[in-house]
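Quick one, T. Sequence first:
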Amino acid sequence: MTTKTAHVDTFCRDLLPPPELWPEMDYSGLPALAYPDRLNCAADLLDARVAAGDGDRPVFHFPGGTWTYRELLETANRIAHVLVDDLGLVPGGRVLLRGFNGPTTAACWFAILKAGGIVVCTMPLLRSRELAYQLDKARIGLVLTDARIRPEADQAAEGRTVRVVGFDELEERMRSKPAGFDNCDTAADDIALLAFTSGTTGNAKGTIHFHRDVMAVCDCFPPCVLKPTRDDLFIGSSPFAFTYGLGGMVLFPIRIGAAAVLLEQGAPPQLIRGIQDFKATIVFTAPTAYRAMLPLLPQHDVSSLRACVSAGEHLPQATFESWERATGLRIIDGIGSTEMLHIFISESGSGAKAGSTGRVVPGYQARIVDEDGNPLPPGSVGRLAVKGPTGCRYLDDPERQAGYVQNGWNLTGDSFSMDEEGYFWYQARTDDMIISAGINISGVEVENVLLEHPKVLECGVVGVPDPERGHVVKAFLVLRPGNEGSPELIKELQDYVKSQIAPYKYPRQIELVEALPRTETGKLQRFRLRERES
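Structure tokens:
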């Protein structure tokens, strides 16, 4: 970090990992990655589009309305005034953003960055205990939230110096604000995003991304693999809190002056209906959704689609082939991570091989390495190592940083093989993360919640294969003496998990056992639980 920061609040900057633990950042892979030292990604994405004459073009379609680029810019500017003038946000301050996929949430996202703040976007389904952890970890003083999900934020803020502002109050305040705003003169390596992702220890990891990183993901995968045009209409299912969804519904279309459909609910029935009703041309979703939409295709017209992107979990070859037979479209598979911000391996068009994740995206490098970080020859199964213009930087977590980044390379936690032509083939996760329907779930986090229940003595949680969701969460439980298993108890335990953490993390399967497999030192052997299900 060599440029002068614009941040007054340097909390996140001060808690970056030491430089020797950073991955090697490479900006030489594409000419577009040569960014200036001073860069505000919100201005380069949004203000630049209006300045180029796109103000009257639609940017967001949603049930009941449409926003133009100018409407989005002026709304973001007014919100930025509220943040700075009324709410005291200073450059470098963190703002927790909590809303459904919609134009107001997107306008808040841009406003925070325009004011020099750091966006901490969260899943709408997160519970107060999860939000409280993020508030404490990032020392967040301000929350912007949709009024419909405000209670959890209010509960998380109790006993903390945190101000919670609903979108309704925000909209009232912004009416008196001007439509113009002087954007904060941030450095390219000032922090823009703090994205939390589940961790194998049960606590969320805060991944840090710079303004330059946001632009880099716009200038690698989209133009080199997806190849969108200004006439494309994007749609997808992932919330903005997932960087996959943020890229597919906000960053990528705005970078080129295209438009996106924003759906508050992106489950397969709503997604396929949205594709039909809005005549979307590019869809971003997970393999689970493609499988779920297959039987719905005869009742819906998706002929407007020209590109289908899949990430979040491994795309099974059967899903790839079934979707191609039904629609004539080859799904563009990809792998990315919150640590890397977006997709870094993918393939499109006739070059895509069924069952393969693809080849490295221009701008990045990737290889297969052994346990010591040495590169392996083609055909070998090993750890996936990646580097390029984005990379892993955890907030105040040097131990995890040292595990994810080794010898300058990002180790994603996946095992792959690479063939002679440079195609990468997914094998398995190398850690205890559970990927269900494209969402990372920490089994340890679910264990910790179940162990709080008064009827549970011991617990082990793993992912088990599922034909629809790829994997589902399964809990193996030892009950406390005096308790007996029953369907009612199973439901009680499932409902308890839903009440404590995001409902999508609950164990869809629970098996009661007399004992759990452990080492001589008492450590739980989750691999033995997984072996029982294989």
